[in-house]
Every structure is written in structure tokens, then in C-alpha cells.
Design a protein that fits this description.
The structure is a homodimer. The first copy, chain A, has 12 helices and 12 strands. Chain A is of the alpha/beta class. In chain A, the strands form 3 sheets. Chain A has a 5-stranded mixed sheet, with helices on both faces. A 5-stranded mixed sheet of chain A has the order 10-9-8-11-12. The first copy, chain A, has a two-stranded antiparallel ribbon with strand order 5-6.
Chain lengths: 323, 323
């Protein structure tokens, strides 16, 4: 099959041509320039896709399906990107209609966490595992859930919002409006924001600031992790909380879904066993032994390609299987 | 179809004959006498079933399937009841083999929470709703989860253990070994145990004791609820915690599964809107508005029949649909 994949992100947008087995034949990437609004962004994306089809000599009429991975929340049923928190102005964007109009082919769409779970299920290191959870572990913390080989969507495509389940009813306020969400403790952006606020407020000396080149605005998860490895006191205080809260959240994922594997994205890939080894140990406090024993916790092995693969997986998942 | 249903419980065991549409043609009940061990209990259960078949004149060879609902945890794949907390000595009981040997017909089994979810999906007030959660709300607090019309089992049949996800890492110890589980706050037995301990320890005056006839050992959830309605101070203190923690737990269920409906068992049926109205209000603190709006929270309407219906539903779910 010929599939056209579109991975629309808050920062960059990628377009690829590939097949249902996850072979990427060609891919191109542009900045999304989200602040310029959806009309401009989608026009440039369609142009990029047409250029890619031209370059590869693929007749658009021979594209079997278009797959779109987009920032959540989305409405799969209505084909809309609803209101992604990091893309102001992109409200109720009719992505599916846009792609149908642009390419004249069948279009399938899902949110990025779900699309990544489909990519892991089809192309990842644990492909074919019937019960599989993907945790994005990036700016935010979303989940895509495959149970008995099927992606879980929920009543209104909002299943798997594990980043905003409440770990502590008296915890810190989350930008989502609740308190003590998993994401306020473990989302990459929130951890950096909370560290920055603490350092500025206390005028604190911390290796984190050094790792960020002395600029509080440059504090990010990488700077945090580097400071943890240098045994910086403030970094270690946050690291302890980070690990414990991540273990609590992952424990709940295990108790609810009883998956064979949890695959973890960006931060877990970057931190590797330095994060995963203590996490596996601490999860035992927050889930029952037989369920923990049944579940491997692994970094995604698709990093670098997962954006393109997730868009292809959405297209492949939407089409009926060929007999 | 002719289905034989067996609802094996810690206290009583029910046997029924019915069909795939949830029509119960005959039912009988005996005390399980769990302390006498599985051999005695299962021998008496088989005898009861044979007597029921005799009475109804149904040739055992014309039974299409046997369905068993059993206290969790169970291994559906291995046909075992593993180690139910309230039935000491019932360890790794091969229920499916026993029923095959006893009746010579196809046998299907599941844990009671899953079986109740199947009963709701097939016969309940919201039958056919594709995404549905059943919460047992009885001695313990378990869940059965139907997503896209399929029961969620998980990798090792342990999905849906929502009663033991951790709401507060510094919360009270739960008999399961963790701290701050949903069930320690909201399980009927745990609430009664914690109230009793508090009343005995503080030698407290409380209307709860009066509602229990002055006997601390007789304190149960009904006595607690009656005292709440009389504005007893201790009862109100626990009620506040009960509602808030139940809302937190239900909020997480909504964020993870995005169901169209959550059906609640025993305690919710007994307490009715006195419990459900404030619960619906408080859930808004622990789940996002669109997901809350998509989800009705209702009492089960199958009370009284749900045990028999859950066993029939397990049998009906196991058989291939008739064309």
C-alpha cells in the first residue's frame, strides 16, 4: 500500500510516504509556525506533501490512505483537532476535511499519544503485544492504550488522559485546572517550570542553573537531569519526587490496564536506565506484585522515526486489512 | 439457549438456569460455607445444580454452556480461582475443570466484577453502551470494564483493579499491603473497620454505635450511613472523606477510560441520590469537564438479580453468537 503520513506537531510538522509495514520511503519536515494560525500551517503542509509526492513520482491517486497524528485533544469521530494547549488559535480545526479536500483520498486521524501506541503495536520492539501502553513522556504526559489488540478511544476519544489523573488532592496546581495531576509532577515542561520558579523565588544556587548556561529561562529537563547526576541538592529533591510520583502514576496504569508492556517516550529514552531502573523498583509500591511481574517497562525503540511511523500507523489502522 | 449460571460468593452461592437474553427460569441459593473448604463447597454446588436441572426437567445434555462468576482474582486462561481474600483455603481452585467434570458441557468463568459488567452490558439499564464501567461498591471495590463492546481482561486477567490504585501515598495502610488505596477509603468493610477502630480507641460517643445496636462488632456501612443522615459528627467526618476519595477514584476512572456510563453496585444502590448527587458534583474536581459531561453515573438497576445475571452473561459471552 501507499500511505501518506502527516505528523502535525506544535513545533514541527513532518510529512512522509511509506507503507503499512512501517517502511518510510521519503519524509520531509517543516516548522509548524503554529502562531501564524491553522490556515497558513495547513497550506504549507499540503504544499510539502504535494512536493514529496512529486519528488517520489507517486501519483496522488495511488495513495491508499492519509494518516494524521495531531496534538490532542482531537475528535476522531468529527475529524477535528479541538484545542491543543500549546497551539493557541488552532480551535476545532477540521483536519480530516482539509486532508480529504487536499488529497482526495481516505483520511484517518488520531491524537499523537494514540498514534504512537499504534506505531508501537505495529512497528515497535514489542509489536503485536495485545495489551500495550505508550507514555509520551515529553513536554506533557499522555498515553495511548492498546487492549486486546485494539486502540482504546473511549466514548468521546478522550480515553488515556493519564497525565491528568490526580495523585494528590492537595498537590500543586496544574495548568489544566486540577491539583496534583501526574503531569504537574512528571511532565517535562511542568518540572522545568517548577524548578525555574523555585530557583528564582529562593535565588537558589543550583547546578541546574549552570547546566542551563546561567539563564533561568533556559532551564529544561535535560539541565535538571544533568544536575541530578551531579548530586545537586535541589535537583535531587525534585528527582525524588519525580520518581515517586511517576511510580505512583505508572502503578495506577498497571492496576487499571494490566498491560504486558509500557513503552516510554522522549524523557525515558534520553534518561535510559538511570530513570527506568529506579522506576521499576518503586512501581512495586503502587501496584500488586502479579500485575507488576506481568508488565515490562521499556523505553520506546522508535525514537526519531516515531512521528512518521505514528502517522503511517493511523493510516494503516484505518484501512481494512487486505486478505 | 439453555445456560447454567453459577454465582459463587464468599457468603452464598447461587445456581440458576436461564438464557442468553437474561431470562432466569429457575434459581436456587445455598450458603457457601467457605470455611469448610472448596471440596465441600463445590460438591454441594454441583448437587444443587443437578437438583435444579431435575426440577426444571432440563436434560443436562441440552445445556449449551455453564457460566461461573467467582470472587477475584481469577485466571480466566487457566480456569482457576486464585486466592480470594475472604475465602481462606480456596487457593488455585480449578473451577472450570470442576464444572466440566460435573456437567460435561462448555464452561466459561470470570471474576465477579467483570461478570457484573457483562451483565450490565447485556441486560442492564444501559445495555449495549459500548464503553461502560461497573463498580462493585460492596465489601470491596472492584471494577469490570467494557470498552468498544468488549470486556477488558488485561495481560493476566487482572485489569480493572481500581480499588487498589493509590489515592494518597501517605494514606492509611490497606490490607492489600499498599497505602492509601481507593478501597481503604471507600470499601464497605474497610470503612466499617476504620470507624470501629476509631470508636473503640477514642471510646467515642457516636450515633454510629447506636445504629449498630451498641455493639462495635456490628458496625457496618448501613449504620454509618444512618448516622450520617443524623448529622453525627464522626460519621460526617468520615462521609466527607468517603465522598472526596470516591470522587477522586471515579475521576481517575473517567480520565483513563472515558466511559459513557459508570454503574455502581450495592452501596450506591442502597444510598441512592444521597450518595450519587454529591459524588457527581465532586467528580468535577478530578476529571476534565468534557469527559465528565460524556459520562453518566448511575446506580445499577439489576440489584437482586445481578448475581444470577452475571453468571448467565459470562456463559453467553463465552459462546459464539448464533447467526
Amino acid at each position: 500500500m501507499n500511505l501518506l503520513g502527516i505528523d502535525l506537531g506544535g513545533t514541527k510538522t513532518s510529512v512522509c510516504i511509506g507503507d503499512e509495514n512501517g517502511t518510510i520511503r521519503a519524509a520531509r519536515r517543516i516548522p509548524t509556525l503554529a502562531s501564524e494560525g491553522p490556515e497558513s500551517g495547513l497550506r504549507r503542509t499540503a504544499g510539502l506533501a504535494r512536493a514529496l509526492l512529486d519528488e517520489t513520482g507517486l501519483d496522488p491517486a495511488r495513495v491508499d490512505a492519509v494518516g494524521i497524528s495531531a496534538p490532542g485533544p482531537v475528535s476522531v469521530r468529527e475529524g477535528l483537532m479541538l484545542r491543543p494547549p500549546n497551539m493557541p488559535g488552532w480551535v476545532d480545526v477540521p483536519l480530516v476535511r482539509w486532508a480529504q479536500d487536499s488529497f482526495g483520498r481516505p483520511v484517518f486521524m488520531n491524537n499523537d499519544a494514540n498514534a504512537c501506541a499504534l506505531a508501537e503495536y505495529r512497528y515497535g520492539s514489542c509489536r503485536g503485544t495485545p495489551n500495550l501502553v505508550y507514555l509520551t513522556m515529553s513536554t506533557g504526559l499522555g498515553a495511548g492504550i492498546v487492549l486486546d489488540g485494539n486502540l482504546v478511544q473511549g466514548a468521546t476519544d478522550l480515553a488515556g488522559e493519564v497525565g491528568h489523573h490526580v495523585l494528590d488532592i492537595r498537590g500543586p496546581p496544574c495548568p489544566c485546572g486540577q491539583r496534583g495531576c501526574l503531569e504537574i509532577y512528571c511532565g517535562g515542561k511542568n518540572v522545568a517550570d517548577r524548578l525555574r520558579a523555585r530557583i528564582v523565588k529562593d535565588n537558589a544556587r543550583s547546578a541546574i542553573l549552570g547546566e542551563a548556561g546561567g539563564d533561568p529561562a533556559a532551564i529544561d529537563f535535560r539541565a535538571f537531569l544533568a544536575a541530578v547526576k551531579k548530586d545537586d541538592a535541589l535537583a535531587l529533591e525534585f528527582w525524588e519526587e519525580y520518581l515517586e510520583r511517576l511510580a505512583q502514576g505508572v502503578g495506577t496504569v498497571i492496576m487499571f490496564f494490566n498491560p504486558q508492556v509500557i513503552l516510554m517516550g522522549t524523557i525515558a529514552i534520553h534518561a535510559g536506565e538511570f530513570l527506568l531502573a529506579p522506576l521499576r523498583e518503586r512501581v512495586r509500591r503502587y501496584a500488586w506484585a502479579p500485575s507488576v511481574a506481568a508488565c515490562r517497562i521499556l523505553p520506546s525503540a522508535l525514537e526519531g522515526r516515531i512521528g512518521d511511523l505514528s502517522a503511517l500507523a493511523v493510516a494503516a489502522d484505518g484501512l481494512p486489512p487486505r486478505v
